[in-house]
């Protein structure tokens, strides 16, 4: 259990810090690595690199997912942990556009592609490993911890960026201090190397033929893809883009925007864990069904209140949005794991998560920035989320029932395999 907590919690904190820090520093990256006329144009260009890094994720998911199904979940996990960590530290060492011109964004893009290839498999493989290795009565809670740990990575990144702008003025940040959040990943890499020793391989079922794997994936893919698409659109807006929305479109002071983002992240973490507990008690289907319906119903009114929010109301709104987002994503890994048989589970979870992430996770900040700037319609982000919520809602009604007996036998098999390893 200690090893499972390490793998499910600490490893993801490190990885998602490295992912989030780029998004939180996007406006600075835009000014330093691109030739831009305005801050919004620079922000859009930085989010373009962010989006391109996402597009390679399905390839990483297919490669590492296949490896996970054929030789075990542990080996690809160990590899992608390092592959996604090292590029962040290297970004902190890059020269800027003013120093080397167009070569600067080219190098930035290469590093983001390497990181995207690795991160295409990081979270789903982690979730697959935890789901299969955990005892039956702890599956829901440990899967929710996997998702909560991603937000702890966001929280760490948010805290580092908040402290950066609290201690340095913008000129100093642009001159050299912008490198600090990226170079902070160096000690995290050392922690990841130590973490890899906790990852053990356990036996997996025979992988089967390509045809049988393809048919199984085809039958099971649509419902989880639609639900994950909604969660990616929701998380891409609330976790990554809302701080920039507050700063650039609602003229909220930068420090207040980052502080309110921390409130959102804390609320999201808490409700991921609550969702895991409720999933064990009532079933993951009921939790995700109620959460998707509630978010779809309330997202437009909550965003409307952003427009004239005072300091206190802004924090309350961020807390409510964090509760909605956390309640959905807290059961996401369990939902994905229960849609696929074990012999294609690693591939299925990776592809069902990464295909929506590749096409929505990367472009969501870019689309929201461009559309809000061009139309001046400040409620566009809410209607963007609403659209995907209406697509996902029917799929939540047709999710597979939780099969406790089979889950228990699978857990026992995996636990015995882990002990032998």
TrEMBL record:
Transmembrane segments: 7-26, 46-67, 79-97, 103-121, 142-167, 173-192, 225-250, 256-275, 287-306, 312-337, 349-371, 377-399
Ranges for domain Major facilitator superfamily (MFS) profile: 4-400
Keywords in alphabetical order: Cell membrane, Membrane, Symport, Transmembrane, Transmembrane helix, Transport
Primary location: membrane
GO cellular component, one term: plasma membrane
Membrane topology classification: Multi-pass membrane protein
Short name of any one Pfam family annotated for the protein: Sugar_tr
MF-aspect GO terms: symporter activity
Origin: domain of life: Bacteria
Cellular localisation: Cell membrane
Name of the protein in question: Putative Major facilitator family transporter
């Amino acid at each position: 259990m200690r090893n499972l907590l390490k793998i499910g919690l600490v490893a993801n904190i490190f990885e998602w810090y490295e992912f989030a820090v780029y998004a939180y520093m996007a406006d600075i990256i835009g000014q330093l690595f691109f030739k831009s006329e305005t801050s919004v144009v620079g922000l859009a260009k930085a989010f373009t690199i962010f989006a391109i890094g996402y597009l390679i994720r399905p390839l990483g998911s297919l490669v590492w997912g296949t490896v996970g199904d054929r030789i075990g979940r542990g080996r690809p996990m160990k590899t992608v942990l390092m592959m996604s960590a090292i590029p962040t530290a290297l970004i902190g060492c890059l020269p800027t556009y003013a120093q080397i011109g167009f070569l600067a964004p080219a190098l930035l893009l290469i590093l983001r592609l390497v990181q995207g290839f690795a991160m295409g498999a990081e979270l789903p493989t982690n979730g697959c490993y935890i789901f299969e290795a955990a005892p039956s009565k702890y599956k829901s809670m440990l899967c929710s911890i996997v998702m909560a740990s991603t937000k702890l990575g966001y929280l760490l990144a948010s805290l580092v960026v908040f402290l950066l702008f609290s201690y340095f003025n913008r000129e100093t940040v642009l001159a050299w201090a912008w490198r600090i959040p990226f170079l902070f990943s160096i000690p995290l890499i050392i922690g990841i190397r130590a973490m890899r020793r906790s990852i053990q391989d356990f036996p997996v079922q025979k992988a089967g033929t390509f045809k049988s794997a393809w048919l199984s994936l085809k039958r099971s893919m649509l419902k989880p893809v639609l639900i994950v698409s909604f969660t990616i659109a929701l998380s891409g807006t609330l976790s990554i883009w809302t701080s920039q929305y507050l700063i650039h479109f609602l003229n909220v002071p930068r420090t207040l925007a980052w502080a309110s983002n921390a409130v959102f992240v804390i609320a999201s973490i808490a409700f991921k864990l609550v969702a895991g507990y409720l999933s064990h008690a009532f079933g993951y289907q009921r939790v995700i069904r109620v959460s998707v319906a509630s978010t779809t119903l309330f997202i437009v009114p909550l965003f409307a209140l952003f427009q004239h929010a005072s300091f206190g109301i802004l924090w309350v709104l961020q807390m409510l949005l964090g509760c909605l987002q956390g309640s959905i994503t807290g059961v996401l890994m369990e939902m994905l794991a229960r849609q696929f048989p074990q012999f294609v589970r690693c591939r299925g979870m990776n592809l069902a998560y990464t295909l929506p992430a590749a096409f929505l996770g990367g472009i969501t900040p870019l689309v929201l920035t461009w559309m809000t700037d061009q139309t001046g319609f400040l409620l566009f982000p809410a209607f963007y989320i609403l659209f995907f919520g209406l697509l996902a809602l029917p799929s939540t009604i047709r999710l597979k029932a939780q099969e406790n007996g089979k889950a228990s036998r699978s857990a026992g098999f995996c636990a015995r395999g882990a002990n032998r390893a």
